[in-house]
Amino acid sequence: KLIPFFIGVFVYFYFPLKQLPFLQRACIKCFPILALIGFLYLREAKHSDEYKCRKLILIGLSLSCIGDAFLIKANLFIPGMIAFALAHVMYILALGFHLVELKYGFLLYGIYTIMLYILMPGLTGPLIYAVPIYGFMLATMTWCSLTAMNRCKIDSWWISRITGIGGVLWMTSDAVLAYNKFVNEVPYQDVLIMVSYYLGQLGITLSSFISWKKYDLLMDSKKAK
């Protein structure tokens, strides 16, 4: 069911997007995220908590699509940031915010502070305020993804880790993007940014498996009794 996603990622890197009109570029860039939306939408929810989580992630993915399209145009960078910030809010609500695993919080906000110190000299106008706010939302979402990873005690290594990996990859993607845009050009920036971004979105989407797996284990335990 994830084959369209991987095909979309391949197509994104195969075509020279900079030579294409805006609409075609937007369609190709957004297709992997649309594939994740389709994957999640077609997955049947087994209980109300899972339905709520899936709904929030779907909204987050939809907002991410809007952000992806906006970022194609340089003059729409701030609207794109707003769309992605709202997506992070949806993911935070889906994953749940808990003041646990404080070591992750200190680490992530420490990285956020260092990155902000590096980026601030290159920020002007509204970006002076927008970038710190967005960075805070991103760090918080990543913290939530890591705490969700450790809160869910299920017998599957990759399922229990996929959420945290997704959050870290997305934070890595945005850190490279910001450094490339506001500080200095990063070699192979498009590959680094988009591969980590797409895989980050995949990880967040697959975090729903934690809910599905926990539900299956609960049902199995009830049947055993």
TrEMBL record:
<feature type="transmembrane region" description="Helical">
    <location>
        <begin position="54"/>
        <end position="72"/>
    </location>
</feature>
<feature type="transmembrane region" description="Helical">
    <location>
        <begin position="22"/>
        <end position="42"/>
    </location>
</feature>
<comment type="similarity">
    <text>Belongs to the TMEM86 family.</text>
</comment>
<keyword id="KW-0812">Transmembrane</keyword>
<dbReference type="Pfam" id="PF07947">
    <property type="entry name" value="YhhN"/>
</dbReference>
<feature type="transmembrane region" description="Helical">
    <location>
        <begin position="191"/>
        <end position="212"/>
    </location>
</feature>
<feature type="transmembrane region" description="Helical">
    <location>
        <begin position="78"/>
        <end position="97"/>
    </location>
</feature>
<keyword id="KW-1133">Transmembrane helix</keyword>
<feature type="transmembrane region" description="Helical">
    <location>
        <begin position="104"/>
        <end position="120"/>
    </location>
</feature>
<dbReference type="GO" id="GO:0016020">
    <property type="term" value="C:membrane"/>
</dbReference>
<dbReference type="GO" id="GO:0047408">
    <property type="term" value="F:alkenylglycerophosphocholine hydrolase activity"/>
</dbReference>
<keyword id="KW-0472">Membrane</keyword>
<protein>
    <recommendedName>
        <fullName>lysoplasmalogenase</fullName>
        <ecNumber>3.3.2.2</ecNumber>
    </recommendedName>
</protein>
<dbReference type="InterPro" id="IPR012506">
    <property type="entry name" value="TMEM86B-like"/>
</dbReference>
<feature type="transmembrane region" description="Helical">
    <location>
        <begin position="126"/>
        <end position="146"/>
    </location>
</feature>
<feature type="transmembrane region" description="Helical">
    <location>
        <begin position="158"/>
        <end position="179"/>
    </location>
</feature>
